[in-house]
Amino acid sequence: xxxxxxxxxxxxxxxxAVWIQPWVDGAPAALPADSVMYGGAWGxxxxxxGATDQGWKLKIATKTADITIEEQSTPVDILADGxxxxxxxxxxxxxxxxxxxxxxGGTLTTVAAGVGQIGKQTLSLQDKLEKWAVGVETVNKYGFxxxxxxxxxxxxxxxxxxxxxxxxxRMYSFEAxxxxxxxxxxxxxxxxxxxx
Length: 196
Hints:
The protein is mostly beta strands. It has one domain (14-109, 117-189). Helices cover 4% and strands 41% of the residues. The protein has 1 helix and 10 strands. The chain is globular, with a radius of gyration of 21 Å.
């Protein structure tokens, strides 16, 4: 007899897009307006991170502490001792802006070409990890957006880029870790269009 409580329409596949903007103290990032449909530009300070090698991963890992007593072989409670939230992927676009994101920050300077002056970009790296707001957008079971907004993260990736003649494209590891209270993380599912 089949399990009638299973709804195959709840099984969803699909890519995600990652958006990023600098974190600004006292000016928290916000998701785009509800009217910005799935796949639309988020606007404002949000920048689309672009192409990846194998998509994105969003991971929440919870470290727990068992509360035990001598009189019971199993814990009497299990409490959250720590929680990490990461967004990770391999950036497949080889620009200095993508390099800045992968390396966790820096200063990107652009000089326009002119008489006797080449056009160029220069990335100056730094030890300090910059803070970022990160948004993730994917499609939900309704065909609309599911958006995650993590308002404060640092990018601390272990980046190793291979420079090969033809065997592989250049990639830059990207791993952003949340440093905001977990209660500030938002997940929004659009379930229907507005009525007239």
